[in-house]
Amino acid sequence: MNGYQEWHLHEDRYFNPDPAQRSIAGELYRSVAHLPIISPHGHVDPRLLADENASFGTPADLFIIPDHYVFRMLYSQGISLENLGIPRRDGGPTEKDHRKVWQIFADHFYLFRGTPTGVWLADELNSVFGIGEKLTGQNAQSIYDQIEAKLKLPEFRPRALFKRFNIEVMCTTDAATDPLTHHQALRKSGWDGNIRPTFRPDAVVNLLTPGWSDNVKALSRASGINVVSYQGFIRALEDRRAFFKSMGTVATDHASEKAYTAELGSSEAEAIFQRALRGKMSPEDARRFTAHMIMEFARMSIDDGLVMQLHVGSIRDHNGLICQRFGANMGADIPTQSEFTHNLRPLLNKYGMDTRLALILFTLDESTYARELAPLAGHYPAVKLGPPWWFYDSINGMRRYFDRVMETAGLHNTAGFNDDTRAFPSIPARHDLWRRVSADWIAGLVVRGIVDLGDAHEMILDMAYRLAKRAYKMA
After folding, report:
1. Is 0.90 topped by the overall pTM?
2. Would you state the pLDDT for residue 153?
3. 339 is in which domain, residue-wise?
């Protein structure tokens, strides 16, 4: 191996060192390790799968340029996004030589030791691409050559990997105004991969979104409804939801900095909407309108049956310079403190008892799990808790989630796992980590006499597969 260190992915990695717990964890994990993957929430570009001959591009295109988990770590060490080949909004100069981008990545691969990203990357490089050596600056170009050669093979095209990964269903995330061209192409192609769109209306709901008026015009074109009033806005959104549902959509996705909900009268909603159309709305208008629309979307979900996902607690684009230069969602989003008990009370008092509503809550404020979210999910029939999200999609984040949520909410008031990824080859690694950590946590219950082995096998089957199917109404 030319003196390079080999990858050693231990068969019982992530398990507790206690021999009794480790043995049970291994037994539980192996019982679900090869189950199909349910991926009900993620951000993989559907165009990758719409064309049977589509390619991932270069190794840098695959591992670095689209993945903010990767480049935010490198940026934190003073490496510019330009040097990582990230395109600038103004078309300014960025590194075009992807071998140079890869070399920077390899030179700094040590930065990912002990992180979730490092765990996923090791699994991807070793298990998916068969790379036996640990990536370093010295072997960077050799490994680039190996990956580049494999990406040219038919068995490494996106559709082939979709089958190899044993993905039963994968949901993308798509703007409310998206014509779903790639999803339509997938349907027409006759390929049997189960790819479903997810309805995300944030760009037309958040009145402070840059280009909001242009987004509303796009909503008019997409729906065929001239959106010049609040009522027209609601009809257009309902029209788009119906279209998405006809394309196989099972869920909607909503992001908000706060979980604040409040119902506006129709005249007040209209007044705010008209101010927004004139560009005269205030931040308070935007806050109250979003709170009202979360209520409206709950009502729509009861009507059309779509599962409602609410992601709370991210201050988007905290680094203004990066946003200005490279656009939104470029690794500069930062968690913030959240509150759910008071903020969700208007919505839950109106709709939380209605079993037709499926509301899955996600947070970036771990302190709310035991104090607020688990008790809410443990009471309201409409509420389930999503898995640890984003910064906490990690070994320790999952363990903390299990310890803080399960005693109060119960396993069946949670929604299983979703990978929430843009990095397609990381999907099996992320699900494998969840299955291993879940197996280890359940094994801890067995060795402490809280559940027996028979119950443990049912629980790991739920956590690995069945909960996600039920929560997203795919069963």
Report:
1. yes
2. 96
3. 19-54+166-471
